[in-house]
Design goal:
alpha+beta, Lipocalin, 10-stranded antiparallel β-sheet, 7-stranded antiparallel β-sheet
């Protein structure tokens, strides 16, 4: 009888420990989920230079013209590579505007619009309906231009001051591949990396793959490639685990090489919906 009572007490204590561990585990998971949500919200709220724009002092304040330029701004923000110029010109009926869209296209040309925003004719590719309008192309005046901000490149990012490294790596990235020193391992297009000012999160299909908070610590790092000598740089230091996590080797055309503290290399591709552009 006494033995059975002791067994019941033991089982009760064991269940209490298990339930306590389960609750603590659930609390930990909830805390991580909340922290990751905060990182993603912070990253998605970052502002950056999405396009380069020139506006001449003589640009007229016409509502229809403002609609055109705002439309191209929105288009670039949505990820389309618009490169557009607007010129003021003269033609047989007076003053008009030449809109040069898709400048890099093989059949790029001009569309002529009058002062009221009415489309008159086009010239480019197989079309030259402007032939009889005596458009003065030679003396046209550039009054507006827009194009996407160029991809960011910083060779030897590890040599840069902390403020440049910090600002350059923040944002949303696509985790493209992992190099383990012998071969590349590629990730699908559902794996993203979110880097905020103090934390890093990796998600795949919206599930949390990795999360850590960090501070910066300057220290010597083994190179990710054998042909490169060891160097001193700023490392994301995991204060909770008391270890180095990531350092950053270079940034070329929006592709970031991450040294996983001497254990391989991540290649991240900038997600242009949210990122910083170092200035």
């Amino acid at each position: 009888m006494k033995t059975n009572i002791l067994k019941l007490i033991y089982i009760s204590l064991l269940l209490a420990v298990v339930l306590s561990c389960t609750k603590n585990s659930e609390k930990t998971e909830e805390a991580i989920e909340k922290a990751v949500e905060e990182v993603i919200n912070e990253v998605m709220g970052l502002e950056y230079e999405k396009y380069l724009e020139y506006i001449d002092d003589s640009f007229p304040d016409y509502p229809w013209l403002n609609e055109i330029i705002n439309g191209h701004r929105i288009s670039i923000e949505m990820g389309y590579p618009d490169h557009v110029r607007i010129y003021q010109c003269t033609y047989k009926d007076g003053i008009g505007f030449l809109i040069e869209a898709c400048i890099e296209c093989s059949d790029a040309g001009f569309g002529l619009v009058d002062m009221e925003g009415k489309w008159i004719c086009a010239r480019g590719g197989w079309d030259d309906s402007c032939r009889g309008y005596n458009v003065d192309y030679e003396n046209k005046i550039l009054i507006w231009e827009i194009q996407p901000a160029p991809p960011l490149t910083i060779d030897n990012l590890y040599e840069q001051p902390l403020d440049i490294i910090n600002k350059s790596v923040q944002g949303k990235w696509k985790l493209h591949k992992f190099w383990d020193g012998r071969m590349n391992h590629f990730y699908d297009w559902t794996t993203f990396v979110y880097i905020s000012e103090k934390s890093v999160a990796i998600t795949r299909n919206e599930d949390i793959e990795l999360f850590f908070s960090y501070s910066w610590k300057k220290m010597e790092v083994s190179p990710p490639y054998p042909e490169v000598s060891s160097y001193t740089t700023f490392v994301m230091w995991n204060d909770k685990q008391d270890r180095g996590e990531w350092s950053f080797f270079q940034l070329r055309a929006d592709m970031l090489e991450v040294n996983l503290f001497n254990s391989g290399v991540y290649t991240l591709i900038r997600s242009r919906d949210n990122a910083w552009t170092a200035k």
